[in-house]
Amino acid sequence: MFRTIIVSNRLPTKVQRTSDGTLAFQPSEGGLATGLGSIYRQEGNVWVGWPGLVVDGEPEEQHVTEQLRQDSMVPVFLTEAEIRDFYEGFSNSTLWPTFHYFPQYATYEQAHWEAYVAVNEKFCRAVLELAGPDDTIWVHDYQLLLLPELLRRARPDCTIGFFLHIPFPSYELIRVLPWRAELLQGMLGADLIGFHTFGYMRHFLSAVSQLLGIATQNGQIETPTRTVLVDAFPMGIDYERYAQVAASEEAKQHEATYREALREVRVILSIDRLDYTKGIAERLRAFELLLQRYPEWQGQASLLMLVVPSRDQVPQYQALKEEIDELVGRINGQYRTISWTPIHYFYRSFPLEELVALYRLAQVALVTPMRDGMNLVAKEFVASKSAAGPGVLILSERAGAARELSDALIINPTSPHELAEALHEALVMPVEEQQQRQAALQALVSQYNVFAWTQLFMDRLAYAKIKQLTLATETLGPDTRAELQTAYQAARQRLLLLDYDGTLVPFQADPQRAQPDAELLQLLQDLTANERNRVVIISGRDRTTLQNWLGHLPLDFIAEHGVWLRTRGEDWQLFQPVRNDWKAEIRPILELYVARTAGSFIEEKEYSLVWHFRRADAELATVRARELMSHLTFLASNTDLQVLEGNKVVEVKNAGINKGTAAARWLSTIAPDFVLAIGDDRTDEDTFGAMPSEAFTVKVGSAPRSLARYHLPGVPDVRQLLRELMMGSE
Ligand code: GDG
Q1: Mean per-residue pLDDT, 58-70
Q2: pLDDT score of 91
Q3: Pocket test for ligand 1, best of 11, 278, 304, 376 (most atoms within 8 A of CB)
Q4: What is the pTM of this model?
């Protein structure tokens, strides 16, 4: 049976050392633990993660392992140094500030990076001990960005999902990281990458295209080996649970006690972990502004602020704590009366029932982070209110939750004025309006709950895998290689149709720099030395270049995508008579696009014109290429021209001639009993399509949607394959 393995930095159970030295196992009440509970507790499934403490020797390690195993968990133990460098270092001092748009707090320590790599490898080893080749692995969050790729290398066929719980920032922030390419590559090991919002997803796709140069389209990324799907999955909460706790006697009791202490005062609630991303100080200033602008709320409204201690060993967090303490002290000192406290401030965490009682009690929830992946407090307030009547949610536009909760009062958290006005508006909002807004929010939060989120992600992950399997061509693995070798050896007359750029040589920013290297020349020499081989270089390039670079070898050529043909020992000839008077009309259009797109240029061949944009700004050029394609396609609609989009090029040429029609000539003239056709781009699909069914057709690079039967990742693999064929054969 296939199993599902959940992996996150922390396990859903926290192990703590009590004062008498024994260990306490405290199950987490967090949303993720609840949502995934239905998965990892199923027969055979498991959750892998750090249990939250440094164990004291082997016996304790074993004890923890055995205890956790009973609840389907497998611990990964971290040392003090790993916690310092991987967790507090790279995860929380490099990635966390960068991803939350606080680059000024980010550190770039090579030692932290190395620890991050080492711990991701440690997690990988732990997962591999459990994972079979066809299992499903779901990796969570920013501490494990490298894990998908590490797992992929060891288990190429596993189904791997990745979900990021924090924002994915603009490419401008990601590019600052010295290890940006490795981090993105790490994530691309997954089959499905999920984010809370479409905005984060868009930033990720843009970073992949700009930093890795990998094309993305409609949320799909074509890597050399797989299609990776990227999608938005806004995480929900266990709505029923909050609604039930809110309706419980215990919560009501707590609420009654608080209400008695606070009397008629309106409560504005604020709950966060201590963090500079949460906008806590700005919130305090906004509350002060409210008291100044609307003095009628003095004595009538209080801010009840819970700050859960967190990361308080880190200097920025200590400074923030001091700032909050100072602000609370100052505001309370200035406004407090004998009977009224402006800010009730708690620096500790509360049990769930008391937390929910506070949600019930509050008229307003003030959730105003500067950046927040999602923010579940906003949703918990909404769910708890279903049993307790009206309430108003004030929500930062920069929390992921704002994308869904549009019936909240959405504010810009950096504007204390906007916040103060929203607070006033919330306090005076008519009860009917509060109820209307709450009803809409509740419908949404209850429907898109954490169980729906889990289900949606898992379904989509399964779909991503099926899609890959149906679209992808088969990788040229050992079995096929053996079959290919046998057919090659048995053949009398072999035809090898080899594309040039992207197949025999890697792409260069300047096409004229892609001359054949000594290794390639030797390879072609050896191939052609065998009299049973006919080797055709089948390229979009002009004939002069091919002639200059490779003309001294006994090769055949197809140039300009089939316009020019040359059989060895003979002269170049046209495939058929063609016109090129259309160039005068098309060239000015291409020139216009060159003028508008720095770095692009025109290549003129005898019977075609090509606009190259490999060296231009990737995102701008993609937009321009689309524009040019539609412009040209419109012009060419009543002519015998065709417009092709290749690898970072748009080409205009005569219709009816392509690599496939040209290659077919060789099939008929030499009647081969072995055909191998290799190519990497759109234009090579014409060759694949023209081949007989028994031919070996190989797509190089990203595999999906090819007519080829097999696929190889890159140029070195093609060269190796050709070498292999020659070994031990006549
Ligand atoms: C990451 C992302 C994203 C808080 N105080 C107490 C308490 N809490 C609970 C809340 C809520 C949770 O902590 C905080 O919610 P977040 O949304 O901030 O979740 P995190 O896991 O910290 O953060 C975030 C989230 O992942 C999910 O993807 O939303 O953007 O940063 O559940 O109720 N719980 C109790 N007592 C407290 O005093 N019992």
Answers
A1: 94
A2: 97
A3: 376
A4: 0.84
